[in-house]
Design goal:
With 539 residues, the protein is mainly alpha-helical. Helices cover 58% and strands 5% of the residues. A five-stranded mixed β-sheet has the order 2-1-3-5-4, covered by helices on one side. Helix 4 runs antiparallel to helix 5, helix 4 runs antiparallel to helix 6 and helix 14 packs across helix 15.
Length: 539
Amino acid sequence: MAFSLASRKQSLVICSLIFLYFALLLFYVIMTQRGVHFDDAFITYRYARNLADGAGITWNIGQRPTEGYTNFLLVILLAPFIRLGLDPFWLTRFLNILAILASAVVLFNIGREYFQMNRVSAFLAAVIMLHPIGAYAAMLGLETCLYTFALLLVLFYYNSYLTKKNKRYLLYFGLSSLAVFWLRPEGMLLVIICLANFFWHRRSLDWREIGSALLPAFFLPLIVYLVWKYWYFGDLFPNPYYLKVSGSFFSDLGYKSVSKYLTLMSPLLILGLISFFLEESRNTLMVVTAIFVLVNILFFLRVDTIMDYHNRFLYPLTPMLVVLALPVLKIGFEGVGRNQGNIIVKMVVLVLFFTIIIGRDYDAKDRFFVFTLSKMKMMKTPVNIFYKEYLVANQLARYPGIRNLKIAIPDAGLIPYYTRAQVLDVVGLNDTFISREKNLGKLINYYLDQKPDLAFMPARANWLRIGHGPLGDYSVLARDSRWADYTYAGTVNVIYYYYHLFVRNNYLKSKQLRNFLRLYVVERYLDPFPLPMGGGKSR
């Protein structure tokens, strides 16, 4: 539909104001979240730094290769920049913000090319990607937004080939599919759905062309990678697979994450369902997208989504839900464009729509950030669940000989990264034996045979167990007589629970380490220590 000159000017003003609103909101989230050091992200950074230092992809330098991550491409991408002296924490955040903007561009093109949306309505749909929930995900410092962008590219190039039959789109589809798999293994679900749809339309496609394009762009690199992976790690599955994929159909954590996300995104989900009642909307792009959303939901119902901050596991489905909602959004946006009413009313209506369409669970202060800007709260460093681990990590890094110290800890992110110590990951994400072994007795023997010099033992204020996996329970170790080899050195409060620090008595510098901990790290000392010590004494 052609807009009159006046309506085009009004639409330009509306789009500019809405873009400015969300750009400022994005800036606000970045500023208020800049101090958040998300623990899991630093697992990836440790692998990337070890690779940059020439030690290979391994958790502890000098030990066998370990795959405790699921974002291979990010590890490879960060390593050369770390070698150049750049901080992977801020670099990854920067790349994620760029990915959000790039995702908006891809959404704009999908709306224009495959839903015949005019420039204004396609732009407004694309601006949804600037919603602050994306910025929160970006500031975690993981691959979340990069993976989201890669998924959109797969969808875009796949549909481009089906509609235009140009071989170069097949090449782009293959390369983006490879990137998706290397950023998150579950991204292969979308690739499989696309390939299955190729087979569904096999009579109308040139399979020689498909094979000649996808073989060098996707299948051969994938085969080479899998062969290398099995040779290098001795397994095709990473450690997180053995820990997070539930043996039963439903995981409690997965169910909570899926329920929370679908509730959060219910407006977009409803719009997407309505779109399927519009006969002209049920095209191949919509069907493939809908199947991927459904399969992803079923997949994450089985996954223990530990530390699912800001919906980081399911956030990549957000642009997919936008794609499903595009037919209804088109009707609504173009209806507003035809209305010659007051531009201020239009702007208010559209801003309110964008504000409530997704992200209904974040604080009101993030919606109306102008009120907090006036108090300059955003200039203060925010305190978060991992802020204390960040402080402990930097203090512990000052200990002489820290790189030769063996630390056992269940939160294997910040402290291992900043200390560069030898680390036993009690949860098992970065330990091949712990991730696969289910027998508690063998796990306890393995832990104590490792003889960590410093052990971080988590507990809640009421002394109930805390931590992931069987070794997260302090009591299972404390009941073993070999725990007498350890001496309590003090306690740190990390907001939601306590870390009780224990030093191995036979460590050559045990007294020096205990004194250092009490001087620079611990906040309190429990005397006597109120839990069993395995026959040992607290001193």
